[in-house]
Design goal:
This protein has about 350 residues and is an alpha+beta fold. It has two domains: about 90 residues; about 200 residues, 2-Layer Sandwich (BirA Bifunctional Protein, domain 2), CATH 3.30.930. The protein is built from twelve helices and twelve strands. The strands form three sheets. A seven-stranded mixed sheet has the order 1-5-6-12-11-8-7, sandwiched between helices. A three-stranded antiparallel sheet has the order 2-4-3. It has a two-stranded antiparallel ribbon with strand order 9-10. The radius of gyration is 44 Å and the shape is rod-shaped. The protein starts with a helix and ends with a helix. The structure holds adenosine-5'-[phenylalaninyl-phosphate] (FA5).
Amino acid sequence: MQDVLLQLQKEALDVFLKVQTPEELEAARVEYLGRKGRLAEAMKDLAALDVDARRDAGKIANDVKRTVEASFAATEARIVESAAEDRQAQEWLDVSLPGVVPAVGHLHLTTQAIDEISDIFAHIGFVRSRHPEVDWDYYAFESLNMPKEHPARDEWETFFAEDEGEIALGEKGKIVLTPHTSNGQVREMEKGVLPIRMINIGKCYRRQASARHLPMFHQFEGLMVDTNVSVTELKGVFDYFVKRYFGANRETRLRPYHFRFTEPSFELDISCAVCDGTGKVDGVKCKLCKGGWLELGGAGMVHPNVLKAGGLDPDVYTGFAFGWGVERTMMMRSGINIDDIRTLYKNDLRFLSQF
Ligand code: FA5
């Protein structure tokens, strides 16, 4: 009996010594120390011994049990400690390693230009206002001295909504996707707050698509109305904007043109940055401007009929207006070499992230 117990003890100690995981430890505990384990079974045999032998064997059995239990406790402590070490090794953090920098986006080139343009005009008192980008024919054309069926409308390549139901046929005509921001002119006058110094920046839509044309683009529309406003103020504002946005070395000029809603009307040009306004590079005609000037956009003195449509007396008030394309203006800045305006809206991050 004693030999059996000591053999059992040796076996149990060997097994606990080899245990590596909590699962193995539990299995070894059940096998040797469990209620139906090998030690409990061996102890049952004590009952068959006579009194003296039972006392001796009982003492040994208790020693074996204590030894095996101590071995179990030591093994358990070893396993817990090594699990903690493993965890520490896995979770170790090297604070000197370079981190993973999350990608940071930025505003789109057009949005940056809109912010900058608004800022420049804010400095000379032009207040940003917003007018509908889907509007009545009346504001886009009729109130701007372009009656229905007038051929001047053709230039605006306009998207009209279908003539269906009450939505498209209000008292102010059909609904259009605004082909220019000039629809804000009469709307601003209708507010009845004078003098007016408005800058209206919004989306415009035309049935056009080419390297210089987008079906959706942005314009910024300036309108100044007061008593005694003249072309001089228009030229001054134009000059101020060009020098702030393009640089102090750029020159401006007004060229006669025709719009139905301004009289007189002008195209506004700025000197070309490539040839410095000379029209020639190394004695050869400048490829960009071909004559020293680049066209920025239209402008003019507000037509008396437009002032009347806005409820103002043209004998008392005068004003000027201009409307320029945001994308085209931005593309004329030196250093931005975009040869196709549509690239702006292709959503190609390789292009957009450069700006
Ligand atoms: C107008 O739209 C007039 N409303 C401007 C104006 C306002 C004149 C106030 C007088 C007084 P125009 O059609 O030329 O004019 O357009 C003005 C500018 O918008 C152009 O010079 C160009 O920069 C831009 N533009 C016009 N069509 C497109 C297009 N499809 N894609 C990109 N930019 C365009």
